[in-house]
Amino acid sequence: MRSSTLRILASQLVTKGKVTTTLAKAMEVRKLADRLISMSKQGSVDARRRIRAYLDTDEAHTKVSVELAGRYMDQQGGYTRVTRSKRRSGDGAQLAVVEFVPSERSKTF
């Protein structure tokens, strides 16, 4: 899959909170988003530079480095989920929604 497509989808996922795309792209974006959040939790300068290389907007970079890293600090992976959606009417491709899961700290039992 093209890296530019993944970068755009990852940036949209970070800024908007969820994105709808085909199932194959959704699985790849989920992997990339989980990796970016894991890198941002390290907090090093190298990690911030690698995150900036993937995301195309400063808004997305800041949100990953500050907001999402803080939200998932106590969690070890599983930051996003992929939910199957309807089929696209034009070509029948299986669509899916990628979104961030609530953090373990925000869950109430």
UniProtKB/TrEMBL annotation:
Transmembrane segments: none
One Pfam entry name: Ribosomal_L17
Any GO molecular function: structural constituent of ribosome
Keywords on record: Ribonucleoprotein, Ribosomal protein
Classification via InterPro entries: Ribosomal_bL17, Ribosomal_bL17_sf
GO CC annotation: large ribosomal subunit
Example of a GO biological process term: translation
Assigned protein family: Belongs to the bacterial ribosomal protein bL17 family.
PANTHER family: LARGE RIBOSOMAL SUBUNIT PROTEIN BL17M, RIBOSOMAL PROTEIN L17
Protein name in UniProt: Ribosomal protein L17-like protein
